[in-house]
Amino acid sequence: MTQDSEASNMTAVEAVTGRHSMRRFLPTPVAEETVRAIVAGAARAPSGTNTQPWKVICVTGEARARVSQAVLRAANAGERSEEYAYMPAGLREPYLTRRRTVGYALYNLYGIARDDYPARKEAMLRNFTFFGAPVGLFFTMDRDLLYGSWLDCGMFMQNIMVLARAHGLETCPQQAWCEFGKAVREALPIPDDEVLVCGMAMGHLDPDAPENTLVSERADVDEFTTFLA
Hints:
CATH superfamily: NADH Oxidase
Shape: globular
Order of helices and strands: HHHEHHHEHEHEH
Distance between the termini: 46 Å
Radius of gyration: 18 Å
């Protein structure tokens, strides 16, 4: 059975619970009509009063190379320009431990020692090559919209990640691009009145990459759910 046929037989439960972020992709091209089908299906995501606030820029080929080069230049020069604060400055428990655990697990799969900061930086910079994926997606929305629209965009993005699996593809959501928003904007036509919400890599996973075996832990249901009757 081929990867595509396996994907077509995937249940909704398998598509959701089997999803995890991939960090190395094959250069195999992805047809534009496939991306269109995924994005169109994802647009069935709910949104407050059907506002549908999400906007998408899909980059391949020269456009993909252009934004990668722009952000790599900025990252290597230390020219950060955050679109918004994603985490509080003093991250507390249990969030700090969860963050460190997945980070150390990834470095281990890369073969990077915890105190090897140059190697850690090099690994981080791979974000800005889309981990080798041939398709990059950038999600924006109008700046004057509020928290509800951020929720809507998140549900839309989740739909894309799940539907991609039905087409034999995998993804990696990448908020890292938003740490260099100015450089992204220099390479892409994003108006000033839109905020860059997130980036995403999409393509065929490299089955031989150790880093693609990383499945981050999840808290037990009883840790975050209260059942009342």
